[in-house]
Every structure is written in C-alpha cells, then in structure tokens.
Design goal:
Elements lengths: L7 E8 L2 H11 L3 E8 L2 E10 L8 E6 L12 E9 L4 H10 L11 E5 L5 E6 L19 E8 L3 H11 L3 E2 L4 E3 L5 E5 L12 E8 L2 H13 L8 E2 L4 E6 L5 E6 L27 H7 L5
Parallel strand pairs: 1-4, 5-7, 8-11, 12-15
Antiparallel strand pairs: 1-12, 2-3, 3-4, 5-8, 6-7, 9-10, 10-11, 13-14, 14-15
The structure holds zinc ion (ZN).
Zinc ion binds next to strand 1 and strand 12.
Amino acid sequence: MGRKIRGLHHITGITADVKKNKGFYTDVLGLRFLKKTINQDDPGTYHLYYGDYEGSAGHIMTFFGYEGSRRGRKGTGQTTRVTYYIPLNSADYWKKRLKEKNISIDETNKDRVIFQDPDGLELELLEKELSLKGWAEIIPEKYAITKFGGVTINSENPEETKAMLENIFGFKKINDEDYETEQKEIIRVKKIGSPGSIGAGSIHHVAWTTDNPETQIKDREALLENDVQVTEVVERMYFKSIYFREPGHSLFEIATNGPGFTVDEPVETLGEKLVLPPWYEHLRERIEKHLPELS
Ligand code: ZN
C-alpha cells in the first residue's frame, strides 16, 4: 500500500495552571521544555511543548493553558491515558521519585507506574526495551523517559475507531483492544462510561505522524475516500496539520514530521523565550503582558 501513518506525533492536553504544568513535566518527569508559544487559535493563551532534546515526533506533549478553567469530565469520546516508555528496570526509581514528590501512584504492576498530572490527566510510565535514550538532564539516562508508549482511546464507537486505525492508518492489530504502530506505540481502544466533557486535565487532541506534505495529502485523500470530514492543511510553523474527528469522537490531527522546532530558534536554546508566529509579532508587547508567569 505504501501509505502509512507512522504512529504518534504529539498529544495536546489542557491545563488550568501553566506554572504547575511546566514544573511537573520538566522538573518531575524530566522532559525538555521545547517551546514557549501561543495557541494560534487563541493568541492570548499559551501553547507549551515538552519532549526530548530536539523535539522528536513521538515524544511531544503539548498543552493549551487556560488559567483557572474547570476540569473536564472523563468519559467516552475522549483520549484518556498517555503512556510513556521508560527503560527496563526503572519503574522502581520512578515509584520512589513520584512518592517523594507527594504524587499518589498506582504501583500494582512491577513494570509500570500510573499517576496523574496536576490537572488530573492520567499518565503511565511503562518499562520497554528500546535502543533509544531519553534526555538526561534532570533524570539519569538509565531511567529517563524515552518516548511515547501509546494512548487509550475511550471511543463512543469502538469498532469503527478500530477499523480506522487498522484500515486507514495501517496499524497492526495485536488483540481485540490493542493496535501497534510502526513506532512501537500501543493504541488501546475501549468504551467505558458515559460521554465525557472537555476541560482541564482532558486531552484536546492526538496528532499522528506523516512523513512529509506529500504523504499528508495522500492521508487526507484516504480520509475523504472513507467519508471522513477533514480540514484543509493548516500551517503550524513546526509542522503542517490536518484535523478530523475519529468515529468515536476524539479529535485527531495528522502532522508532518518536519520542519520541527528549530525553525525559529536554535536547538541549544529551545524554550527559553516566547516565540510567536510571524503574523503575531507586531502584537508581542500586548501578548506578553497578558500571559501569566511561568516560573
Ligand atoms: Zn496538535
């Protein structure tokens, strides 16, 4: 077939407290603060990016900051748990570390730890042998998060969501609930509870990786052929994107692998200053005054 979605690109959540959010994903989880910018669709608010040193696809967690916003309600029509891979024999390190930071954890399983971020977004660290190494500035390399391990999609229509993952995206069916991407992530599809509502602690959307703008056009055509309503290509500075709702109602995005986060600042100083899309630069002073303190 040739055309294939590689796996996860980034996952975007909503936070009600940008300062706590940044502290948690950098100081506690040890991810790199990659980019401080604004939500292009709501320029008075932050869009914060965390990941590995270079901001590789498959390792990018991003947040829209809505200060003081209400928590979402977990339920169907949402993507829920985000899993990160950690090296073998590192779960004990994380259990100890999270407990020391007064974060309540589920440590039922030996090889994984489940907990929530400050907004209540569910996270899992799962041991997995990979040749990748994590970014080791805060966390020692032998324990550092290596990449995304997957997500759980709480689908309104699980059978149709699964059909999309298998037939349009080309993911490999592992068992009745799980699909594996080429990037070794496990995408779990289930249906639990009643419809959720979006708010702080919710995942806003999940973005999948396509190689380049040409493959993105082919992905878009494949979606249209399958009667999926999809947006035109949107310029997001660091990648180009298309958006659509999967049949189970989660918002999905397909993003190009490049050009990446060094398009507007050098890799050494990523995240140090507020960067704005050029078409917002003339409003910098006003935008900066409006945004909350991050540290
Ligand atoms: Zn996105």
